[in-house]
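Supplementary notes for students who missed Thursday's class. We covered one full example, reproduced here. Read the sequence, then the structure, then the short commentary at the end.
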Amino acid sequence: MKINWELTGGLNREHLDNIHQKALEIIRKIGIETVHTQVLEMLKNKPGVMIKGERVCLEPALTEELLDLKTLPKKAPPAQDFQLCTTGYALNVMDLEDGRIRKSTVNDLKEMIKLADSMNMPGNAPIFPQDLPQPLAEIATYKIGYENSRNRIAGSMFSSFEVLEFILRMQEVVTGRMGFGMHMISPLKFDPFLLDLAYRLKDKPSVCIGVGTMPALGLTAPVFIIAALVQALAEILGGAAILKLLSPKKNVGFGPWLYSSDMLTGNFILGGSPEHVLVNLLLVDICRFYGMTATAKTFSNMAKDIDVQAGLESSLGTMLMAMKGVRSFGYAGILSADQIYSGAWLVIQNEIFEYVKRLARDYQENLSTRVIEDCALNIDYIRHASTVENYRQRLWSSPLFNGSLFSQTGVDARTIKEKAGKMAREKIAGHNFQLAEDKSRALNKIWEEAMAKFGGGRLPVE
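Structure (token representation):
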């Protein structure tokens, strides 16, 4: 007997068609601010393109043609297993020994990458080290990530074309592919720096670009979620279509996002609020409409410590998203949006993830009553073969959230935070990945060139 659950409701086909058409209309009427003389010159007089000052407007049919969106919804992507990702670029780290919050270092970067990799997490660099000059720190997030993770945890940040050139070379050595992300500026603008990078690389179709956006409800987008989603889609569809006009052979992807906000503090809410969860749920429907895999950013939170707020903001939304059918989740290990990274919190969130997976999975149940007949008349359940053979799979036994009672002797009196810290240190010590020697040599050569260009000493990782 197969038993499963699902969360119903959300956006239907009519809703999605309307949202898509509204986004295309925004691209046609308002367009994308494109502050780049050479790009504007390339685009003028192209069929379906209208230049209004520094805004590029596209006819809906052209946008759909460039992005292969004439037939929607797109085919669903292949089903995937549960996966938890990490990221952060945190400038601060919660020390695994004493719990104090301090500036992050290169060694923290290496250790947190090892820790995430030991739990089979992909993602981006959890730490942005403060003990290197910024250009070298940006490159180091890639080098150290590639050298210490099977899942190729690497960076996503760069502050100049020169830095990006080193990063692309490292990507090609390890992955055989090259690319970078381009976040639009809300509302409806290209980032001039990132647009210039795309222009300079327009004749290199092997360098892929992924277009994203980060509008915030009531701050840089409408306070109404659906209207804000229309804006977010207009930003990424318009941005991606313009990039395809610049470089028709280039692989240009796109992915929508939207954040909540807190009017008391003026902050983006990068995770945890009810609106953040609602946005995640709606984005699942939108991603499926465009044939994309949705990643739920429900492990992100605004808590400043490993506390009740952190637990609440990491678990409820994650459970709802799992029941919605989402299997990719982020971003574990971070606190206070992305200001603090904690290895202990990474371990705890991974355990929350295991909890959710057990609830969201399909269950195969045995309806046979033979075991009742056996145990009611002959033997107790605890010794029965069905229990002995199946209890490990059927009954969750968490190394972190155990089921002991206060009154039992020998109860571990350490806090969850203390236990998680110890587990994190053990996992780091036991991590043993080693990058292939030829790739390691190639990365070292690129790193030596980077040091010669930007200055700075050896990586203080040992």
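Commentary. Residues 225-246 form the longest helix (22 residues). The chain has 15 helices and 17 strands. If anything here is unclear, bring it to office hours.
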